[in-house]
Design brief:
The structure is a homodimer. By secondary structure, the first copy, chain A, is mainly alpha-helical. In chain A, 66% of the residues lie in helices and 6% in strands. Chain A has a 3-stranded mixed sheet with strand order 1-2-3. In chain A, helix 2 (7-15) packs antiparallel against helix 3, helix 8 (79-88) packs across helix 10 (103-112) and helix 9 packs across helix 11 (115-125). The radius of gyration of chain A is 30 Å and the shape is elongated. The interface between A and B is large, with 112 and 113 residues.
Chain lengths: 447, 447
């Protein structure tokens, strides 16, 4: 399918004429071209297509490719051409690209840029990774208060080319302080001589340069914004973040949260593009932590050596009970951690969530106890089946409550509960499961 | 903090005058009002604010509230008012709202709508849940081919009020077949007498009414679209889906994937709003499945009763080894499942991913074997420490490879690998871990 989509480009490449490659490329938009180039980066066709695109399009295509591909595509580009290319990029892409380069090349490139571009770039570079400042673009449309709708439209018409969006414009006072936002929709619909000040949207939503990118994405999603204005600490407009960047953040955040749930940490990219070493690094940390956590479970078993030796049949149910405690813990922890991430759960909810989990986990435990007792009576003696059934209720309840309380406690202590990873909670529930099981067994089956 | 934001509204409510409530509400945008109403739905203040909003704003606010709140807010609304309210809603919100109502009320409401609204509604209702058709809006701006940029802007100016977006307009031929998309940006910048046909964007991206909503969201993200045109099977424009709906889909999909990773299935809402019963239902299914899966682990242990009885110390390391197999499996499964969900991994990648995992899992296994051997020699005899270390390499490798292959196999068989849930893969890795451990122990420590 994919090869069919790109057939015109493949044919043009076969003809080996730069002119026909450029013409064929003209049929595609930047995102598609980026995909083709990405797929063919290793066989030179990707680079060849890229080199034969007009400069503006090349700048756009770069914004859609991965960091690795960006470096590959530009490593041989002469400095003079590279400076024009970076000048053509939207200011947010430009910062990301600049950050990829080696320091010596950064310095050379910086010297080639004109004063204004250089100032913008160094200002944007000053913001910490993961903040609104590092994500924002400075290519926004801005009006001073007091002009009319038709004057505003005229300004947009003339400056549209260099703007990230012209659908939202920002109105500032003489000090650069943001007064409000006016949409092109309102400008178009309004009578031409209406003052823009009377067209401002109600309930201005904005963020700060040091707001986290997750919070920015959440604001854009919550208010269905096309773009969010970013203010410095004097309330002056410093930049904007558009919805498409927010979508990328939401997707990246979701990937990070899903990875962490599977005890994979700090992996920016997917499994196909990550190197074996970065995969190793992102996985070994939690595996080793969990080794030490599980040693406690082993110690727990050692403590109950006598009762196990006397009733070896208890062992057959151990994986089941330990896994059930862990699974119940993983379930409630997953729900709470996701709730915290989306802003659905806040710390003061804890009593309500605890009580709810008490009801849900008891019901879950009873159902599972019944299931396991029914299986148990056919496979072992009644006393053991009963021990297992009673334990099941206890461990599901314990696991479920640990899963609720631990993430909330971590959040209270200022630790990101997703980073603390659900596998650790599962392991703690596991250990508790072992202790509860053999304690109950000791009581029922005697010392 | 939140109460401070809404202070003007709280003060107005205290004054008990509908007029001042309406004025205070006027300071907020629809998303904020929805939040306030949602927070105060139980103490009547929410309903009171809602009732005192102008009808257009009420329609907008409804679109930002949860289904439960929508029903609560409108249950007492007389039919005549309800029909005006639904007519004011964007067509996509209208369908969702309509689907919430009881069948008798649906029928009554349908009779109250005028012919055109009724036709649009019934057409949209015909599309299956989760498809583009069920998500799309019919309030798009459309031009017939052959008009000029200034004529197009005039049309937009007059019809803007009823459109979901005027920033992307759709150009169709005499049969309603979509020819292309033109942005308001291009219309504004172009000379007034330019034909819109020459302003169309290159590389038209569209989807079908039966395309899944995940694929729609992926297209919108990939191409940074403001809106995606949706075609029927005669290539006629049937509706559009805007970026804000795509953001909601991405977030909902991420929540679903994260829940499934924690073995919670089919929970549409978060832990704070879900009822204990729906939480029970979403969790019991996997817990019971995992009970049966874990019985195999128990049976595996039973099979090795003799070697365990002879060397009880083996037991202390069992939780550790089983958990390591499961964790390694969960890690690689998480990476593959997420890769499949984002389109990063396709089936033909399997050999490449298998080989990569072979390298990574061997490295992980060696590191962990070294760790556990070091711990082991201080706590038990050398033969057992060595058995444990060798087993560690084998189980991490087995777990890692199962985690890679099983999701790909499920995907190949047409089963959504996220739905098959990572906990099951973890459990399969657990069972393998037990078998491998005691088999190796039998070989090294004798029968």
């Amino acid at each position: 399918m994919e090869s069919l989509l790109f057939q015109p480009l493949v044919d043009a490449l076969a003809s080996d004429q730069p002119q026909s490659v450029a013409e064929a490329a003209n049929l595609f938009n930047a995102a598609d071209l980026a995909e083709f180039i990405e797929q063919n980066i290793e066989n030179e066709a990707g680079r060849y297509v890229f080199q034969n695109l007009p400069l503006t399009l090349r700048a756009k295509v770069l914004g859609y490719t991965t960091p690795d591909t960006q470096l590959l595509l530009t490593e041989a580009t002469p400095l003079a051409e590279l400076s024009i290319l970076t000048a053509e990029m939207p200011s947010d892409d430009r910062v990301d690209f600049f950050n990829l380069l080696e320091e010596s090349r950064q310095k050379q490139l910086l010297r080639k840029l004109d004063q204004e571009d250089r100032d913008v770039l160094t200002a944007l570079l000053a913001h910490a990774e993961g903040t609104a400042g590092s994500l924002m673009s400075t290519d926004y449309a801005v009006f001073e208060s007091g002009i009319t709708a038709s004057e505003a439209i005229d300004i947009l018409r003339k400056t549209a080319e260099n703007k990230e969006t012209i659908y939202q414009s920002y109105v500032i006072d003489g000090h650069g302080v943001l007064i409000g936002v006016v949409s092109l929709r309102r400008l178009i619909v309004a009578k031409p001589d209406t003052l823009i000040d009377s067209l401002l949207a109600t309930g201005l939503v904005s963020a700060r340069t040091d707001t986290s990118q997750d919070d920015v994405a959440r604001l854009i999603t919550k208010y269905d914004l096309l773009a969010l204005p970013i203010l410095d600490h004097h309330d002056r407009l410093a930049g904007i973040i558009t919805y498409d960047d927010a979508m990328d953040v939401i997707e990246a955040e979701a990937t990070e949260d899903i990875h962490k749930g599977g005890s994979v940490s700090n992996l920016d990219t997917g499994i196909t593009t990550a190197s074996p070493f970065s995969l190793y690094r992102s996985r070994i940390q939690w595996l080793v932590i969990l080794v030490f956590a599980n040693i406690f479970t082993g110690a727990g078993i050692a403590h109950f050596e006598d009762i196990i030796g006397a009733h070896l049949a208890l062992l057959f149910f151990m994986p089941l009970l330990v896994a059930s405690a862990g699974n119940a813990g993983a379930q409630s922890a997953t729900l709470v951690v996701r709730g915290i991430a989306t802003g659905d759960v806040v710390n003061r909810d804890w009593i309500r969530l605890f009580n709810k989990e008490l009801i849900v986990a008891t019901a879950l435990g009873l159902t599972m106890a019944l299931t396991v007792w029914t299986v148990g009576v056919f496979r072992t003696e009644l006393a053991i089946a009963t021990t297992v059934a009673i334990t099941m209720i206890a461990v599901v309840l314990a696991g479920g409550l640990i899963g609720i309380l631990l993430p909330l406690l971590l959040n209270r202590l200022g630790v990101d509960p997703a980073a603390a990873s659900i596998p650790l909670i599962t392991t703690i529930a596991d250990v508790s499961g072992v202790m509860i099981y053999f304690s109950i067994a000791t009581i029922i089956l005697g010392p």
